[in-house]
Amino acid sequence: MNNHISILVILIVDVSVVLLLNSHVGLCSCYNRIFSFGDDTMDTGNFIHLIGKAPSKYKEAPYGKTFFRHATGRISDGRVLIDFYAEALKLPMIPPILPEKNFGCFPHGANFAVFGATARGKVFFSGSPWCIGTQMYWFDQLVDRIAPGDGKPPKDGNIISDVIADISHFIEELIVVNGAKAFVVANNFPVGCLASYLSRFHSDDHEDYDEHGCLKSFNEFSQKHNEQLYSAIGQIRYSYPNVKVIYADYYNATMEFIKKPSRFGIGDPLVACCGGNGPYHTSMECNGTAKLWGDPHHFANWDGMHMTEKAYNIIMEGVLNGPFADPPFPLSC
Q1: Could you give the CA distance from residue 159 to residue 121 in angstroms, rounded to a whole number?
Q2: Which residues, 6 or more positions from 187, have their beta carbon under 8 angstroms from its beta carbon?
Q3: Angle, alpha carbons 205-257-44 (nearest 5°)
């Protein structure tokens, strides 16, 4: 990318990043391109492109039923996080990179996120082959094609062993190589409140649950991760004082509708909208024959593991317009 273009990077940990490039004066937003990296919460079609003609429930209803009225490769009933970032910045929806990877011009940016992606590569435990390093490699290829000479040559995407260190390394690379000047780094969700975890790790010991019905140990793990992430952000701020780093608190933005679901028109925030029977509606996976328990607008959880468009919208409202960004998210120049 040209050196005079400043870049805003939104990092949603475990693994999502969005780069927004400054637009020319006179446009309705400060940014006219988004390059996003991430996982299930951001994927807009890369996974279903990667699997080709292989069958997948993500290619079929009821996925996509709420907003698009058909499946799009998003792992939700409708829009996902990246769609709300684009909407807030008055940009069109950002297309997935892979279908047009070798020839697309991507005038408004591209989405590199893939369902199941992790910060670490497959060499580490059960990491994804489409980890953040692979996505960065795709980004380097795109930069080399559409802006030759502005980025460094494609690399092999080697990943260091520590997740937080991985993310810090990735951010530093974007600062040094691509000229990023502003970042939004998002923390981890309260995974102990997900229906799939609540079902799989059910306990008869009431002490294992908090007052909202979430599994304490999983949420404590998320909180510890988030504390380490915040510390790493502090180090980046210290090392690069001219770079703005915004901390997006997805954990507490999510806890808003876990604590007070009726305030948002949500029923039980811990049960899945699409699935089967059982206390969390997870006795079967969400697919074309699964049971829909009602209007997704009244649910926070979509299929046990992933959230509804309604939940993502609430989270993004809290980050973009509410108290869950430190410092506040810059919607204007």
Answers
A1: 7
A2: 13, 222, 225, 226, 229, 230, 247, 248, 249, 250, 251
A3: 105
H-type alpha helices, the chain: 46-50, 81-88, 132-146, 163-178, 195-200, 216-239, 250-259, 309-320
Instruction: Identify the DSSP state of 111.
Output: E
How far apart, in whole angstroms, are the C-alpha atoms of residue 219 and residue 224? 9
Query: pLDDT: is 167 or 309 the higher one?
Result: 309
127-172 pLDDT tens trace: 567 788 888 889 889 888 887 655 443 333 322 225 778 788 888 8
The end-to-end CA distance of the chain, in Å, is: 20
Determine the Cα–Cα distance for residues 157 and 150; give it in Å rounded to an integer.
19
Beta strands in the chain (DSSP E): 7-12, 16-22, 31-37, 109-111, 180-186, 244-248, 274-275, 291-292, 325-326
Q: What's the pLDDT at 68?
A: 97
pTM of the shown model: 0.89
Rounded to an integer, what distance in angstroms lies between the CA atom of residue 149 and that of residue 140? 11
Residue 289, CB-side half-sphere exposure with 13 Å CA sphere: 2
User: Within 10 A of 143 (CB to CB), how many other CB atoms are there?
Assistant: 20
Could you give the C-alpha distances from 240 to 18, 171, 179, 222, in angstroms and in order? Answer: 19, 11, 12, 27
Tell me the two tokens of residue 44: 């807009």
What band does 6 get if pLDDT is binned at 50, 70 and 90? very low
Q: What is the pLDDT of residues 69-96, one digit of tens each?
A: 999 999 999 999 999 988 988 889 999 9
**What pLDDT is attached to residue 221?**
96
Q: Which residues contact 56 (CB under 8 A, 6 or more apart)?
A: 47, 48
Mean pLDDT of 2-19: 50
How far is residue 279's CA from residue 316's CA, in Å, rounded to a whole number?
A: 28
